Every structure is written in structure tokens, then in C-alpha cells.
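Run log, item B.
One chain of 314 residues. Sequence copied directly from the ordering sheet:
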Amino acid sequence: MNVTMLKSQIDAVSSNISRVFLGKPEVIEMTLTAFFAQGHLLLDDVPGVGKTLLGQALARSINASFARIQFTSDLLPADVIGGDFYNQKTQEFQFERGPIFANIVLADEVNRTPPRTQSATLEAMSERQTSVGGKTYELPNPFFVVATQNPVEFQGVYPLPEAQLDRFIMRLSVGYPNRQAERMILDAHASGSALGSISPVIELADALAIQNCVPEVTLESSVTDYLLEIVESTRRVDDLALGASPRASLAFARAVRAYALVQGRDYVVPDDVKALAVPVLAHRILPRNVRREESQHVAVSFLERALASIPAPR
């Protein structure tokens, strides 16, 4: 594994995205971590902060296909994954692929669609394949879903159950840009969309090669114990109705390896674990006796206290 070459490619993608997605380098860094870890990303944020632009810029930077699905209350599973349609010319049924058959898929406002459509989408995310009419169809590789939901609106939505939230390797919030970044956004978009200036800086095969290198990143025994101690802390307190599962541990380990590679290292350090504990674990634990809209904040506070009390290895 040539870490210097991989770091150069990752930096090229990050710089390319930052040309249009301005003022949020940490969000780009976490998005690339989720992508190279072969997970999926959930963005909790209000409309208009650039979530679609982020997905499109990533797709263009690695020469990948992109699809945006606007989730609504009347969206059906076939509208997402596709279905069998009768071809009058051939007089046969044939499968027509839905928009989920893209390398990078933006599932916009995923909590606005009924549970049946949510389940079909999340099943495809988990299995990386879908079955229609007794036939199984592989999804493209790489396959990365960026799902969004508005954390402010609670009317007319179908909140994702905890078992489905567990399918996302990370949950992030983009947030508003600062004044300087927003001025840059105004200047960049003065003559129209800035996305047209984005062209591939690496090829899809290069992105796959980086993903395949992630398992080779060293996770030393003491750092593994530190990671597991954080996970186990979510299972030992009465304030939490649901602690992080073994699947969360696997996702956590995969994410910290990818994060180390994004930082230009072939080994994980305790600071990588600290940086990813909240985005990887907070949506996988369920506090007791709090309203749903407050649970994420309570989960984040719990993990921050755990990180402060659990000693990191030297």
C-alpha cells in the first residue's frame, strides 16, 4: 500500500469538492471517510445548505454516476429500485432499473416516504443488491448513499427506526457557513452553477482501489481495546434503552481505518477514535425517557462524557 500516492489522490478529490462546497472542510473529510469505508451517510440538516451539491461534486470528482431521489409520501419502492415492465415490441417482461442503480445516490428527505419504501431503499443499501420478480440484481460498485432528513419538521414524516438508522455508518450535520464562506459562495455562484467547473481528478477504479486498501490500515491492539471500551460504555448504563451493537463496533473499526487513510496514515491513533465516536455511534444508541427530537442531542452528550472519562492509550 503506497500511502503517499493514496493520500495524494484523496487530497485531490477533497480539494476538487471544496471548489464548490465551500467553508466546510470537516464535512468533506467525514464524507470521504464514510465513502472510502464503504458505508452510507445520513445528513441531518435543513434545506439549502448544499447537501445535493456535496453528492454531485463527489460523483464528478471520481467520474461516478449520480442520481437524486426526492422522497415523498406517495413514492413507491418501484420508483426507487425499478421493476418489471412489459415491452410490447418484444412481448416480454424486462427489468427497468430505478435511480438507485447509480454509484452515488442522494436520498433527499428519506423520512418523508412511508416505511415500505424506506425498507426497500435501506435493504438495497445493506445487501448492495435488490430482488424483483424472483431475480437478483447487483448494485454498482462503488455504491454510496447520502440520505438527508430535516431535523426541524416533525409533521408528515416517518422517522427512521433504530434498526434502519444502524445501516448508516455516520450521521452528520452540515450547518450554516460562516460569513466569509457564505460570501465566497455568493461570488462562486454569481454567474450560475459552479458545478460545471468540476471535472474528474481520479477515476472510479482509483476510488475502488482506495476502498480496498482500508482493511490494510493497522488497528493496534490497545487502540482496539479503547474503541471497544467506548462501545461497551453504551451498554452499561440505565439511561440508555439501547446500546451500540456489535455491528456498530464493526462499522466503528472500519470508519477509523478509513479516517486514518484520509489523514495520510496506514495506522490508527486514539485521536481517530475520538474524532469518529460521535458521528458513528450517536445515532445507534437510544436514550430512555426523552422525546425523539431530543434523543440525538442526549446521545451526543453521553458520548462526549464517555470520551472525557475513558483514558486513551498512549
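Observations after the first pass:
- The two ends are 26 Å apart (CA to CA).
- The mean pLDDT is 86.
Flagged for discussion on Thursday.
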